[in-house]
Amino acid sequence: MAPAGPSSSPSPTRFWLAALLALGMICCYAQRGTLSVAAPFMIEQGRVSTAEMGLLLSAFFWSYSFMQVPAGWLVDRVGAGRAYAVGFAFWSLAAAGTGFARGPGALVAARVSLGVGQSVAFPASASAAAHSFPDDERGLVTATYLSGVRLGQALVSAVGAFLIASYGLRAFFLASGIVPMLWLLPWSRFWAGREGARLSSDSGPVRREALSLAGSVALLQHRTVLGILLGFFAFDYAWYVYVNWLPGYLVMERKFGPAEVSLYGSVPYVAMTVVILLSGFLSDWLVRRGHAETKVRKALIATGLLVACLIVPAGLVRDRMTAVWLMTASLCGLGIASPNTWTLTQAVCARSIVGTVSGIQNFGGNVGGIIAPALTGYIAHRTGSFAPALGITGVVLVAGALAYVLLVSRRVDPAGPAAWVRAGVGGRSASGWTSAPPP
Q1: Largest CB tally within 10 Å, which of 144, 223, 239, 426?
Q2: CATH code at 298?
Q3: 279 assigned to some structural domain
Q4: Half-sphere exposure (Cβ direction) of 324: Cα atoms closer than 13 Å
């Protein structure tokens, strides 16, 4: 469907879209986090070892990571509304089916299916934000739906252990899959008749070039896209250490009980959510004040990743509450970076390929999601401590900050159906791509 023509002002319906994106992410991450909450119970019951649970936790990312580029390409081809609805329904059924899985093989299959469905969430959200909001609002709207990520994790951490203890694992997984499907009703109603339309008149008509799937993969040869991929690998590596191992770390290393895990396993995510919103607001304010958008967002990303390195001393201190507060501060560092990782991608890419490049970005991040849970579990199993694994996470974060600062420097804009132009070469190449400094 062709995009809507320019309007005199941005449509107020975009704020309903922001709310639906946030609620969708709450559901997405609550469902994704169910196994990490169940992990200590399953390990304690002798169903799996710590190392085996690490592999189960990483199984989600086997499909989730490698589906990112196809999912982003699909979003740019059929639109965010349709792609998100189909993916949401599929992953919710997979989440419910986890409760009926018997044995490691069935659990792996359920988690892989969950990853296939959820691969569409971030490309669809980024594409919807890029097409529907002005440039100086996208930091806050991105922060809004990213706050849903952390609230979803906090929600499942806060109530998951209680639900498992009260009703059992099967009922817990079943409810986590079926109840969130109610979100599909307002989402489908919102997009009825709107797919392909712009809700913002910020920057002229939206182009929809027919970029091939092979051309999408070839974008990795662009310096900026490579920097986004490597930098987000580091961000997500640290994030998935927390998502998959924070409850287990608090139980096994710091000896917290179930009630304490519910509290201290959720409060850090709430603090991170507040910081995400503040960071999104601050970045937009600086852009409105006339500062170059790319420089603003890169500076906040680098600062946040360096603050997140507090995860290293958190693993070394003796006092368990000091460890909790250091981890909270570390997560707040990720919160500073979080909205800007996605809005930076929107700033340096043409709108017509935001879904595709967001898929590439999330592919890089979730390769970290494959590695981080398994490596962390293996190290903890072999050494009897999480401290070495947390130290490795700090090194990865520093490398990620350098990737964003040094590599992300040129705008990526399709001027035709071909794939790429080498960074630093202005104008148009024989390939049909332009490469110019981003705003």
Answers
A1: 239
A2: 1.20.1250.20
A3: yes
A4: 20
Whether 433 and 413 have beta carbons less than 8 Å apart is answered as yes
Q: What is the DSSP letter of 192?
A: T
Q: What share of the chain is helix, strand, coil (3-state, %, to 5)?
A: 75, 0, 20
Pick the closest to residue 196 from 2, 438, 415, 403 (CA basis).
2
- HEC letters along 52-67: HHHHHHHHHHHHHHHC
List beta partners, residue 435. Answer: 412
Q: 281 in a domain, yes or no?
A: yes
Residues spanned by the domain of 411? 14-194+210-436
Per the listing, tokens 């509304």 go with 81
Q: DSSP assignment, residue 222?
A: S
Measured torsion, CA atoms of residues 323, 328, 329, 330, in degrees rounded to the nearest 10: 90
Please provide residue 385's backbone torsions phi and psi, each rounded to the nearest 5 degrees: -150, 150
Q: Is 202 helix (H, G, I), strand (E, B) or coil?
A: coil
Residue owning tokens 């093989």:
105
Answer with the residue of higher pLDDT: 283 or 249: 283
In a 10 Å sphere around its CB, with 0-12 CB exposed, 13-18 middle and 19+ buried, how is residue 427 labelled? exposed
Residue 308 reports pLDDT greater than 90 = yes
Mean pLDDT of 71-85: 87
